[in-house]
Amino acid sequence: MNDHSDGPLDPTRREFLVGAGAVGFAAAFGLQLLFPDGVLAIPNAEGFLLVDLKKCQGCGTCMMTCALAHSGSASYTLSRIQIAQDSFANWPSDVHMAQCHQCKDAPCVEACPVEPVKALKPNPAFGYVRMVDQELCIGCESCIDACPFTPARVQWNHVIGRSQKCDLCADTPHLGEKGGPGGTQACVAVCPVGAITFTRFMPGENTEESYYINLRNAVWQKLGMTAK
After folding, report:
1. DSSP letters spanning 152-218
2. Are strands 48-51 and 196-199 parallel, antiparallel or unpaired?
3. What's the DSSP call for residue 124?
């Protein structure tokens, strides 16, 4: 385990609540408030996934386990974490791991047209992780289109005809143990080389690079592969 596994929550994760009692009440129930300037304020998530692309072998174990934990099906297409490989690129640029950033501003949440309660929202029961309520989702795919990353970190579940996304294993009926920010993340637990880790610290910037981390230990040092 590394230094990012535990520690105090990001001190800024409730910054929007300062001096706003009404917002605090709304956050307690996982609600969003639209301020006069048009800014949608939502609580920050209390957990994030960081990855080491130089460690990742592109084996797909995390993808298969993700699908199994959530749906009980061994299907890469139902995975909420995605691995892409470019056979023509040189290491380490040949493998790309696409995990949800649990964005601070969460454009996917803002884009959800369902009213009065959005189908995609921060869930206060699971550390404000951005989650899709399948009972409310209308399958419009607005959240998928709104994701600023490629591939989109919100996926289309072709089996149920609804959107889905990483919930840090908060809703995993087939995992067999507690998930979410205070529990187990299946992809972290099964990665054979330890290329994925969980942290409660929000990365400084919402970029792909800010979610990359060096997870290489003494074994990798012997291979001369511990440098950033």
Report:
1. -SEEEETTTTEEEE--TTSS-TTTSS--STTS--HHHHH-TT--EEEESSPPSSSSTGGGB-----H
2. antiparallel
3. G
Residues 59 and 222 sit within 8 Å (Cβ to Cβ): no
Place of tokens 């369902």: 114
Token output for 8: 């105090």
In this predicted model, what pLDDT tens digit does every residue of 169-192 receive, in sequence order?
999 999 999 999 999 999 999 999
Strand stretches in 55-110, DSSP E: 82-85, 95-98
Q: Which residues of the chain have pLDDT under 50?
A: 1-31, 33-38
pTM reported for the whole predicted model: 0.81
Summarize pLDDT for 132-166 with one digit per residue, the tens: 999 999 999 999 999 999 999 999 999 999 999 99
Residue 43's alpha-carbon distances to 46, 96, 119, 213, 221, in angstroms, are: 9, 29, 16, 25, 39
Closest Cα partner for 137 from 153, 117, 159?
A: 117
